[in-house]
Amino acid sequence: MQTIKKLLDKYGAELNKKLRQPKFFIKEILGIPLTPYQEEWLDLLEKHNRLNISAFRASGKTELFAIAYPIFKMFSTRKWEGILLSSSLRQATDTLRRVRERILSNEVLRTAVPDNKSASWSRTEIELKNGSRLVSLPNNEHLRGKHVDYIVGDELGEWKDWDVVTKTIPPMVLAKGGKIVFVGTPTSELDFIHKLEKNKAYITRWYPANKKAEGGKTLWELRYPEIPIRVKRKEYDSLSWSREFLLKPLSSSDQIFPYRLIAQCLDYDSKFEDAPEKGTSYFLGLDFALSGEAGADYTVMTVLKRKENRLKIVKILRYKGLSYQAQKYKVLQLCNTYHPVKVIADEGTFGKTFLQDLLAAGVPIEGFRFTNQSKQDLIVHLRRQFEDKTLQIPCDKLDSETQLQVNQLIKELSSFGVVVDQEKGTIRLKGIGTHDDMVFSLALAVYASKGFGEAMFIVRRGNKSGIRPNALIRRV
Question: Which of 94, 240, 380, 440 is the most buried (most CB within 10 A)?
């Protein structure tokens, strides 16, 4: 930001003309540096009255469209009126607070604030001496009746009411020939950003973080030249990174485990193993089911071994209708055979009492609580094993047991996808039209193998259950 005196010394009589140019005003008066893609946004704003902009998280889209540009218009145009629309009142008031702070902290802009600003300033409204007004509101049907020059809808991907987008908002700028701009980051391929893209009245543009600009730099590098994108990538799981930064959300047609990924992990020369191998670590994933329910899920137990930084499925057991005690007995049998280093089990079916019983029997078991987020993290971690080809799936066609279980596993993996609830704005990962117990059992077994070495000393002792659990595990 420069003072008026410095600007007059620098530009002289040309200053008034330049103050009516958005790029100049934003850079010189507001002191906000603009990336080339943000300058492109301003060009689009000047040329078009309807925009639908999708840009990566932290790209500066809200700062430009909902803060910098409205401030420019308020100061350069008498009696200009704008509305900032957000998904909630909290977001609406927070955005206007940022506008207010920009104005009050700026030596040049403060001169346009009314002497008695308390009469025209509130949590949701700002008015300047020249009669220009900016209002910030949640996006609902109560907007009807207002007529303004500019409306920006922030985070369109999170909006729930399509009628507000197509029926409520357009008439509000009709009388003044105003502009409507929607900005956001997509949440699914069914969200309003994608839906609005089909509307020919709107100019839609996509700005993913990895998009190359002139000069060969990515948009991320233009925005954050001192933060390598690979460093930022480590903070996010694959699905979140794809959605938030690459603008590729999951849709109901997406397969998390397409067959091309599964096929590269199939080993047609191996089969299930009934005995443990010396010097090898074993892990067990348990997805339980309640018996006696109509259409009940299956109980699935998956045994993995880890050797030379690779995981291999050793055994899959799949049952339906087993009682509480029968499921516990099957777990004890598996542990007595393979002596797993770690067992991870679905905690939600039988609860902590079941796990405590197994712990008392010497099973090195931990519970896993399924939530929407924990499921996503679990599945992303499993997919990464397929992507990195670190998972081996035996597929010997001459072994009937191996073929039976692996064919069912492939079927469940291939059918595992995304269910989008457009009304609630939620995404769930689950088997579509089939069971997904084998997928989650495998995912839990893979999760159990995280962070354990290959060779180890194991000292075992007997107990009343007959199982010989690990009494001491020491990494080598």
Answer: 440
